[in-house]
């Protein structure tokens, strides 16, 4: 009888933190995107991260287009600057929701 493997998506950890983030660069150039990194102790590859500006407004013309954990303890955020001048990425405070699934390997699909 054929077998089917069902990916499990149980959450092992789900927590909120409010760090002040020091980015790898301070600005994003005019009309471009840039991936900036920051050290966040405890992050693991496979964690899902939601990132929110806390107690402030996002800089006009600057937006987050992608958030990922690129290596252990390393948050990588891709920013887009839609203006004609360089914009500074704020250091915080930020609110991060970090979700760690039970088994990342079972969540990653492969083409058949």
Structure description:
The protein is mostly beta strands and 112 residues long. The chain has one domain. It is 4% helix and 46% strand. The strands form 3 sheets. The protein has a 3-stranded antiparallel sheet, with no helix packed on it. A 3-stranded antiparallel sheet has the order 3-6-5, with no helix packed on it. The chain is elongated. It starts with 10 loop residues before the first strand and ends in a 5-residue tail after the last helix. The model has no long low-confidence stretch (mean pLDDT 86).
Q: Biggest sheet, open or closed, and with what strands and sense?
A: 3 strands, antiparallel
Domain unit count: 1
Number of helices: 1
What is the topology, as strand order, of the major beta sheet? 1-8-4
What is the approximate shape? elongated
- Can you give the helix content as a percent range? under 10%
Q: How far is the N terminus from the C terminus?
A: 19 Å
Derived from helix and strand composition plus strand pairing, the structural class reads: mainly beta
Mean pLDDT: 86
Radius of gyration: 17 Å
Portion in strands:
over 45%
List segments where confidence is low: pLDDT < 50 over at least 5 consecutive residues.
none
**How many strands?**
8
Order of helices and strands: EEEEEEEEH
């Amino acid at each position: 009888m054929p077998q089917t493997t069902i990916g499990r998506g149980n959450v092992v950890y789900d927590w909120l933190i409010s760090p002040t983030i020091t980015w790898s660069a301070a600005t994003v150039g005019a009309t471009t995107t840039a991936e900036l990194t920051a050290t966040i102790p405890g992050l693991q590859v496979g964690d899902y991260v939601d990132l929110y500006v806390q107690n402030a407004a996002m800089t006009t013309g600057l937006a987050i287009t992608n958030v990922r954990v690129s290596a252990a303890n390393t948050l990588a955020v891709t920013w887009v600057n839609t203006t004609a001048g360089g914009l500074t990425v704020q250091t915080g405070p930020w609110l991060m929701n970090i979700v760690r699934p039970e088994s990342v390997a079972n969540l990653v699909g492969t083409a058949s």
